[in-house]
Specification:
121 residues, 4-stranded antiparallel sheet, 45% helix
Length: 121
């Protein structure tokens, strides 16, 4: 039974990697106006708020939070991670949408970062 479960997990993870690679390639072929529209239509923030984040503090960054892969459900983690990776979310180009409370980005392996958005003035 363990071998069957292990096989299915590897199969699922492989399929996710193939889908992510196809999405990245399709995104690279899209004209700039399509990319701008895609960025404007972010997924609902609940995709990220279901993850378990741990508070952190940095000298330059101030207060922020990190969600680690091993501390979260695999399907929730994979979904959120794929969205951020496909959007090329970095600390300089963070992912967020209208009504979001936080901005999100990737840095390093198996970690999703977030920081509270400053109120618009």
């Amino acid at each position: 039974m363990d071998k069957q479960i292990e096989f299915l997990i590897k199969l699922r993870d492989g399929c996710l990697m193939i889908a992510d690679a196809a999405n990245e390639y399709l995104d690279s072929l899209a004209p700039p106006e399509v990319k701008e529209k895609k960025q404007a239509t972010a997924v609902q923030e609940v995709t990220f708020t279901t993850l378990r984040f741990e508070p952190q503090q940095g000298a330059k960054l101030g207060d922020f939070e990190v969600a680690y892969r091993q501390n979260n459900l695999a399907d929730k983690w994979s979904s959120a991670y794929s969205i951020l990776r496909n959007s090329n979310a970095t600390i300089k180009d963070r992912y967020h949408g209208d009504g979001y409370q936080h901005s999100y980005w990737l840095y390093g392996e198996d970690k999703i970062y977030r920081q509270k958005l400053k109120p618009k003035t």
